[in-house]
Each structure stands twice: as C-alpha cells, then as structure tokens.
C-alpha cells in the first residue's frame, strides 16, 4: 500500500501554491506541518483527487488516481477544513447520506454509524440538527464521516480544530490504532496532534517540502539550539525583544523560567534542553506565536 506524490505543482493566477512536492506515503500516521498559507490544503485536495494539478501526478499503488476513479474513492476517506451539509440534516441523516454516497448497504451503514456515534460520543445528539451543533461536535461528525467506509487511505485537514484537549487525546489514540495497516495523512499547525503518533513528518513552507523524516530525525537539526534559563521577572521584557522565547513559567521569588531558541546560549547560566517538535516548528516558522 503506497501513495506516491510526484513533483506535484499547483499554480493559480498569481501564485504557485504547491511547488514540485514529492512524497511517498506508506502505512502509518504522517504529519504534514506548516503555517497557514503554506500550501497544505492545496496539496491535500490534489491528493484527494478534488483538484487537478498543474504538473505532476498522484499514484496509489502505482496507478494514477485519475485512472483508478471510483476504485480510489472506495478506499479513500477525506475530512476537509470545512464541509457542507443540508441545514435540515440531523447527525444521523448526514452520516447516512454520506454512507449512501460511499456505496455502503443499509445494514453496513447502520452498523458503522452506530459504532462511530459511540466512538465519538455523538450518540446523544444523533437526532440533533447539524446546524445546531457546536464547532467541536461538527468536527467530530466530520471525522466520523471520513471513517465510514473503513478507508485504506485517510486524509484529514486540520482535524482537531475546535476539539477540546480531552477530545484531541481520544482522537489521537483512535488514529494511532487505525493507522496500523493504513495510510493516514494529517495536516495541522497544532504540533501536539502529531508529535507522539506520527511515524513520519513532512514540513511545508511556501509551497515546498523543506524537511521530511521521523520526529527523531527532524529534531536532530535542533540539537544545541534549545535552552532554558532562570531570569528575574523584572528583566523579562529586556530579553523578550532579542530572544526567541518558546515558553515562560513563573517560579518563586520573582524569578521566571524561560525556554528559548538560539544558535548559542544568550541568557546567563543557560542550560541545553532536549528539543521537541514544537521547538522545530517555531524555529522554522518564527512568526507563529501560538502552537498548541
């Protein structure tokens, strides 16, 4: 099982959104990291067969997805950033409608829907109209519809947007189990969504893949660039201007602990720290102030 993206490029009138991207995806969870506007959604829409590339190709097990057609859609699940539904649909109606589009029999659809409603804690709102759901609940319904046909290939675009921390943890655990013999590609700028479950990561910036590998492999480039130090709270404003600070924690007696990124230690009595994926993200995307 393999999804091969070859030199994929997408140009719009005044912008090259994706620029010669090549990736070979095998079973497991793949994290696609990047700031908003990096080209992640455009890349995923092409991988889903919803957007025709300007150049390049997407192949599933060696066959272009355009040639596979329905056979690809039968083994494919997709959650876009935003998905539409008829206003009168209840949660069950919506999932039943999507199941019919995916070719599930009535018996298969009912069994699968009932199971997913339980998995995503939606059983109590099965008769509630979609328009009346909270953002987090709509997101859970969206994830459920992507799993209805038990896909071999699953693409999720910002899947945990709107989910609370507990829901995000349950979702990550579910994906980790699901991806044992399937390909799962998750696009996100929330680093913790993929840090502990992704077998591979690709980092996208300005339409290109700028780094690829396991979390451990990617973090090697951050060795010697992550530091911590204790500084007086009244001096903090002075350091904030010239130091790329990742986090600040209040300690005792007017002292704060600062975790920061730099090529060499710049604060007094700094100690080297083990890098995390969040550190790499902020190093590559310094303008991104919030990483959850």
TrEMBL record:
Which Pfam families does the record cross-reference, listed alphabetically? ABC_tran (PF00005)
Q: Which InterPro entries match?
A: AAA+_ATPase, ABC_transporter-like_ATP-bd, ABC_transporter-like_CS, P-loop_NTPase
Tell me a Gene Ontology molecular-function term this record carries: ATP hydrolysis activity
Q: By its UniProt entry, which CDD domains does this protein fall under?
A: ABC_drug_resistance_like
Q: Report keywords, A-Z.
A: ATP-binding, Nucleotide-binding, Transport
Question: Where does the ABC transporter domain start and stop, copy by copy?
Answer: 3-231
Q: Does the keyword ATP-binding apply?
A: yes
- Signal peptide residue numbers: none
- This protein's source sits in the domain of life called Bacteria
Q: Which family does it belong to?
A: Belongs to the ABC transporter superfamily.
Protein name (Swiss-Prot/TrEMBL):
ABC transporter ATP-binding protein
Organism this protein belongs to? Merdimonas faecis
């Amino acid at each position: 099982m393999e999804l091969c993206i070859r030199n994929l490029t997408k140009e719009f009138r005044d912008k090259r959104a994706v620029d010669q991207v090549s990736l070979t995806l095998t079973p497991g969870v793949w994290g696609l990291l990047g700031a908003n506007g990096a080209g992640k959604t455009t890349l995923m829409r092409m991988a889903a067969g919803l957007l025709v590339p300007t150049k390049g190709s997407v192949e599933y097990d060696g066959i272009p997805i355009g040639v596979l057609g329905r056979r690809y859609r039968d083994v494919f699940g997709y959650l876009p950033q935003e998905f539409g539904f008829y206003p009168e649909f209840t949660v069950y109606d919506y999932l039943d409608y999507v199941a019919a589009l995916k070719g599930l029999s009535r018996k298969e659809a009912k069994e699968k829907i009932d199971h997913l409603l339980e998995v995503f804690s939606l059983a109590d709102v099965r008769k509630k109209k979609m328009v009346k759901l909270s953002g987090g609940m709509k997101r859970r319904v969206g994830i459920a519809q992507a799993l209805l046909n038990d896909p071999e290939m699953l693409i999720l675009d910002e899947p945990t947007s709107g989910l609370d921390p507990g829901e995000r943890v349950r979702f990550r655990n579910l994906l980790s189990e699901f991806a044992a013999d399937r390909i799962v590609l998750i696009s996100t700028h929330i680093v913790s969504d993929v840090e502990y479950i992704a077998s591979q990561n690709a980092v996208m910036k300005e339409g290109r893949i700028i780094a690829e590998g396991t979390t451990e492999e990617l973090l090697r480039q951050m060795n010697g660039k992550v530091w911590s130090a204790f500084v007086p709270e009244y001096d903090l404003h002075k350091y904030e201007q010239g130091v790329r600070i990742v986090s600040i924690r209040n300690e005792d007696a007017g002292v704060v602990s600062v975790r920061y990124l730099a090529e060499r230690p710049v604060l007094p009595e700094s100690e080297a720290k083990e890098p995390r994926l969040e550190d790499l993200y902020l190093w590559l995307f310094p303008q991104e102030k919030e990483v959850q």
